[in-house]
Amino acid sequence: MKVLTLNFLTCAVKACKSSSDSFPLHPKEAELAKDDVEINPQLLVNVLPRIDWAALRTTSTELGFPALPEQPPTAEELEADEKMLQELHSLLMETQIMEGKLVCGHCGHEYAIREGIANFLLPSHLV
Amino acid sequence: MDYLIRFSQSHETFRLPEIQALAVIEGVDLKVASYSLESPFCIVNLASEGDARRLIRRSILVQTIHELWGSGPTLEDVHAAVRERTPQFWERYMTCSFKFTLDSYQGSRSSEEKVRLIDSFSYLGFAGPIVMKRPDEEFILFEDWLWGSAVQGIKEPKHYYFGRYIATGARDMPKKLDLKKRRYISTTSMDSELALVTANLALAAPGKLMYDPFVGTGSFPIACAQFGALTFGSDIDGRSIRGDSGKKTLRGNFEQYGLLSGLGGMFTADLTNSPIRRQSLGTSSDGVQGRIFDGIVCDPPYGVREGLRVLGVRDPEKSPWVTSKGKEMYKLPDFIPPRKPYSFVAMLDDILQFSAQTLVDGGRLSFWMPTANDEDQEIPVPSHPYLETISVCTQVFNKWSRRLITYRRIPDAEVDQEAMKMWEADKEKLVGKTADELNPFRKAYFNKFEVEN
Fold it and tell me: Which ranges carry the tRNA (guanine(10)-N(2))-methyltransferase TRMT11 N-terminal domain (chain B) (predicted)?
């Protein structure tokens, strides 16, 4: 699962939806892999407004990547900044979480990731 | 300038919505001058030859497009139109290599007749070499015959079109993604032709983010990735994504077609308890913030060949131990959460609501739903105040059909909030417990679509 995907995912438990602690989910015991993907600046610019930047900064730090700037770049800044494009591409598109867990910061529920596929199914007492 | 589109005569109701969607993707101003479901010929008005090429370059249902020089119910009408409208073009084709061909739809001509028809254009005066294999230019006379003309002794087609060949659509793409040669499929994988048409209707394109909440073996994401989109998907049954954990996996399919760069993320999840981040409706001012996808494409379970289930226990009072056992066991790695049957109509509403919450302005939802052909048992096309219906295409089987319905997410400001309140109130009314109560289509299907008295 790409790190980009992690930025779109929150805790599946309905009671957690209203809490800001349920997003982003926190990777635990994460095994990372790197895919070789050709950089696509158009895609990154399109993705930018859909990213929750604060959450991405948290994830980036938790996965041991260099700290991202406090504010997201604008589309124009990103297009002009080769280095930033490359960094975001490497983090969002190339880095995959293959094994490990995603933990909700609100309820503590752990979602397992196996073979790059996270499992968000809930037992009936949490539905 | 008028152009002639030569469609394939199949999936008729999908053809016009497909080229209209392609006009949106390519930013082409398209005016349809004449079209009929019964004919493969369609006349459109476009600004340039370049627009004509772009319009159909990824069309699955268009065979070819031509610069239309003349048309009419008789050959004399065609000649009159060509003489009146096109003499200024003739000069350009005086010396290039060329050929003339005849394309008779539902009809045939003897070789003498073919020669006679082609020779009737000799006044054009083209002097270049005639080359049958890859000439510089190809001129085609199309005939539209009435079905069964030969049997009825009809001697002339009902309509003629004459034009210069411009470009071919993407009719070979379904072959590339053919299910017969795909490594990993299941009983409900969507055939590649219709999956690609669905991707076109949902405006899949380079740089766009597409999502399939019932991903199965990945037919729709593969079709979207083929058009350059980044794709996401989930399924309540993780085994369908994981496959045999070797070569036969969803990821393996992307690998087979060299589309791995279009694989965003796949995960196991239930649409009614989705982990996808969502914003409450009506809270975004810029038309994007907090919303993620450009397109959502899916073929939800109909509850016939595959169960229609969501997380939960069917009857918690009758079987309290299921929940309590789950409480103890849910942290075990091989725990499988209980699932219950779910209302088909409620699920359609859930898909619409989810799409309203996660699609950017102008983003599209294209999904398949079945219905009985019998009018009294027909399941109405679902609606949502935040989604405008763009097209309804139908594939007819013996007693039932499936429809591909496409919606566009409209900006919050255009939404009728009163209608939204009513929509939410109506959704509350859906109740039921067994699969048949919950799913009118399933019930009709297993009753062989017989009308009850």
Answer: 1-171
